[in-house]
UniProtKB/TrEMBL annotation:
GO molecular function: hydrolase activity, acting on glycosyl bonds
Residue ranges occupied by any Glycosyl hydrolase family 32 N-terminal domain in the UniProt entry: 15-232
Transmembrane parts of this sequence: none
Keywords: Glycosidase, Hydrolase
CDD domains: GH32-like (cd18609)
Entry keyword annotation includes Mitochondrion: no
Protein family: Belongs to the glycosyl hydrolase 32 family.
Name recorded for this polypeptide: Glycosyl hydrolase family 32
Domain of life of the organism encoding this protein: Bacteria
Annotated source species: Glycomyces buryatensis
């Protein structure tokens, strides 16, 4: 596991270098804050490396908030890492600013030659487009403007790139039904075209579809995401499901997601989980959230999983 004595650890994302080592990037904030609810607006992006996803060597932080004024001068949040055709690595990440009181989320990127030293690029590159996505206003029914947690992957049928991200739409539906999977496309990872969401509001939906990821398990493409029970739609909560991480089977190229078909990966406290492959086995890793009424804030050891045709389950 990855546990820090002086910092909470939560959302994470992964990359594998040319030597086969696993790099984890994760959100961290000092435990000196004492109240864990204060961590979000003080988050930086930490970095560690491992051979087995269980024993980690801590490295210098990858990114911290920028100097003001900037779109990411308050905190840096969850993202993903891809490799450009040139061999250079690119990290997409979320930023919030002091000028917006941390309520408006935007997505930008940074680049690295070695996964260790990162240089942020001018941004942001993706913002909530009011043609399709809700923007923050007082009384909108939600406390922030969602445009975060970018997951970037190459178009399987072409040369371009796709991004899924946490978003929400405006509308008459209750706020806890309006979470959607945001969508943007790019030919070069530099310029992004925001497109309509890949999912729609649903009575069995969620107020936020957080930390999306696409991963193939036992031959089936899955979209993994998370949402706490308090942010789920009333009809979804009434199902009495166990677990805050959800999986939907999908087909590529990705053209739509039926969020009502999401089924939970059952775990007592796992949140913001990621699927990853090690030694030919798919595992799931996330952070330990609330246990016995207290926030834990550490990454789990890898948990082997498989797709049983209907659900993602422990192996």
């Amino acid at each position: 596991m990855l546990k820090l004595a002086d910092h909470w650890v939560w959302d994470s994302w992964y990359a594998i270098d040319d030597d086969g080592r696993h790099h984890v990037f994760f959100l961290r904030a000092s435990r000196a804050l004492q109240e864990e609810g204060r961590r979000h607006l003080r988050a930086s992006i930490g970095h560690a490396v491992s051979d087995d996803l269980a024993k980690w060597t801590l490295l210098p932080d990858a990114l911290v908030f920028d100097d003001a004024p900037a779109w990411d001068d308050q905190a840096t949040w969850t993202g993903s890492v891809v490799r450009e055709d040139s061999g250079r690595w690119r990290m997409f990440y979320t930023g919030v600013s002091r000028g917006d009181d941390g309520r408006v989320q935007r997505i930008g990127s940074a680049v690295s030659d070695d996964l260790t030293v990162w240089h942020r690029l001018p941004g942001p590159q993706v913002e909530a487009d009011p043609r399709w996505y809700e923007q923050f206003t007082e009384g909108s029914g939600w406390h922030d403007e969602s445009c975060r947690d970018p997951w970037v992957y190459r178009d399987p049928g072409g040369d371009g790139w796709h991004m899924t991200y946490t978003a929400r739409v405006d509308g008459p539906e209750p706020a806890r039904e309006r979470g959607v999977v945001g969508h943007a496309v790019s030919a070069d990872l530099e310029t992004w075209e925001v497109r309509p969401p890949l999912s729609r509001p649903d009575a069995l939906g969620f107020g936020q579809v957080e930390v999306t990821q696409l991963h193939q398990v036992d031959g089936q493409w899955l979209m993994l995401f998370c949402c706490g029970q308090r942010e789920a739609a009333d009809a979804r909560r009434a199902l009495g499901e166990s677990g805050d991480n959800y999986v939907v089977p999908v087909e590529l190229p990705l053209t739509g997601i039926d969020i009502a078909k999401a089924r939970p990966f059952e775990h007592e406290s796992l949140y913001a989980a990621r699927l990853h492959d090690v030694d030919g086995q798919t595992v799931i890793i996330g952070f330990r959230n609330i246990e016995d009424g207290e926030f834990v804030g550490e990454l789990t050891d890898p948990i082997p999983v498989h797709w049983d045709g209907e659900r993602l389950v422990r192996k």
